[in-house]
Design brief:
The chain is mostly helical and about 130 residues long. The chain contains 1 helix and no strands. The chain starts with a helix and ends in a 23-residue tail after the last helix.
């Protein structure tokens, strides 16, 4: 028959083995948790790298869109200036016939020489000497 001390040693061995198994299970769970967290961290780093590349791509596209907007804005201003210049030229062209007629009527005309005498003609003096 087993004695109390042998039962105590036997129970103590089971308790120690049980504790050792629990510690091993805890260590295994900790390892699994660490591996899972490392995998999640790697996934997060990969996603962050993709997001960063996407951000760079979007910044490039935004810069290109801004350049295009600036170019279009310059073209719109130029087109407006061209339209104004064309309108001014057209107005000048439309007024040109009237201005030519007005210029002809305002031009000084010499008096008619028909029937006038030559008495009004003076003497030419040579002043080159």
């Amino acid at each position: 028959m087993p004695t109390a001390s042998s039962l105590s040693l036997s129970t103590s061995g089971y308790v120690q083995q049980f504790r050792q198994q629990q510690a091993q299970r805890s260590a295994d769970q900790a390892r699994q948790t660490a591996q899972s967290l490392q995998s999640q961290a790697q996934t997060a780093r990969s996603e962050a790298a993709r997001a960063q590349q996407n951000a760079r791509d979007i910044e490039i596209k935004a810069g290109q869109a801004q350049s295009e907007a600036n170019r279009v804005s310059v073209n719109v201003k130029a087109a407006s200036n061209i339209e104004t210049a064309q309108a001014n030229l057209q107005t000048s062209y439309d007024r040109l016939p009237d201005q030519i007629v007005a210029a002809k009527t305002d031009t000084y005309t010499a008096p008619s020489t028909t029937g006038s005498s030559t008495a009004n003609v003076g003497t030419v003096i040579n002043t080159t000497a």
